[in-house]
Structure to design on (291 residues):
């Protein structure tokens, strides 16, 4: 959204070893920290972040930027006891890779599973952490296992059965996802690429793509759409300071004119109150507000 103050420090790590050393330093010195993926659904306050913001690097040297290292996949297949049908393929991916890039790369290899998720901005690690998704499809549908480093610096492998995924959330707090293993299906490459292209077009037509926004501001309440509810109150174009409710989709708030985090927070509270007054529904934010 291009708002929010600076962090005291911003650190990119390229290896698990660097990450473990950094966590050791942080723990020994009792420093506040926050790990970001692509940062696409985060709201930092105007006062900034008094601590270290950590990001897994996407540089060419980074361990977290790799897709489908063959040796790793072979080793994993050898250890795997569960047999999968011939139509199924496993791939692994570093957590810093962009979800859109992974979707295109797997599509080019005739691997289906990510096409409906391809237009979600952000990294693969962030998308798994928040169980990002679209209607009827979320990251948890295709994840098989993940590697994490917990905040104490211990490396662990978690299979899907050990992770509690819910609508737009997981119980992975306290862990930094470093690598993700997916199970995808063989399919026709052109069909997959066509779905990706349709998904992009659908987004362009129904969401304010290209503006300064953080995706859907609120989670959908059960069996309804937050966007529809806000729109029904005629709040499209309503603004606080420089932040305006999009006239394309009412669950997107756009930074139109040098808005600040305070404007965004005021607008969030205002919309929550209005929706509650009319529908007795308590909207919950989908974007993460970092204090
Ligand atoms: N609608 C309105 N007015 C609006 C917006 C929507 O009347 O201003 C109506 C639409 O016409 C439609 C219904 O509400 O009948 C649902 O809208 P839409 O299809 O846009 O889906 P959504 O429920 O608003 C969800 C996800 C999006 C995802 C889309 C498409 C959430 C909170 N939102 O939106 O995800 O892109 O489905 O699959 O789950 C995000 O997570 O950041 C996000 C944008």
């Amino acid at each position: 959204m291009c708002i929010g103050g600076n962090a005291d420090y911003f650190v990119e790590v390229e290896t698990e070893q660097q990450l473990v050393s950094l966590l050791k330093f942080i723990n020994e010195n009792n420093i506040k920290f926050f790990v970001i993926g692509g940062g696409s659904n985060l709201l930092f306050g105007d006062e900034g972040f008094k601590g270290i913001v950590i990001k897994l690097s996407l540089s060419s040297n980074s361990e977290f930027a790799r897709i489908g290292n063959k040796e790793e996949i072979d080793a994993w297949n050898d250890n795997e006891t569960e047999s999968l049908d011939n139509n199924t393929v496993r791939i692994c991916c570093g957590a810093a890779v962009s979800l859109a890039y992974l979707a295109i790369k797997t599509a080019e290899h005739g691997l289906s599973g990510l096409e409906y998720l391809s237009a979600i901005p952000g990294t693969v690690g962030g998308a798994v952490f928040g169980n990002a998704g679209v209607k009827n499809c979320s990251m948890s549908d295709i994840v098989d296992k993940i590697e994490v480093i917990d905040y104490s610096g211990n490396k662990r492998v978690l299979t899907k059965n050990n992770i509690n995924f819910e609508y737009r959330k997981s119980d992975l707090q306290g862990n930094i996802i470093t690598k993700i293993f997916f199970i995808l299906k063989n399919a026709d490459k052109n069909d997959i690429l066509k779905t990706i292209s349709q998904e992009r077009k659908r987004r362009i037509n129904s969401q304010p793509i290209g503006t300064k926004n953080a995706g859907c501001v609120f989670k959908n309440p059960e069996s309804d759409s937050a966007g529809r509810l806000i729109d029904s109150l005629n709040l499209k174009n309503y603004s606080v300071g420089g932040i305006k409710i999009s006239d394309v989709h009412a669950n997107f708030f756009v930074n139109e004119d040098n808005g600040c985090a305070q404007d965004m927070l005021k607008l969030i509270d205002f919309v929550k109150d209005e929706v509650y007054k009319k529908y007795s529904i308590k909207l919950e934010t989908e974007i993460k507000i970092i204090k």
Observations:
- The pocket of EPU is lined by residues 134-135, 206, 215-216, 219-220, 225-228, 231, 249-251, 286 (CB under 6 Å).
- The helical segments are 16-29, 70-79, 99-108, 124-129, 189-206, 226-232, 261-279.
- The chain has three domains: 7-56, 63-193, 211-290.
- The chain is about 30% helix and 25% strand.
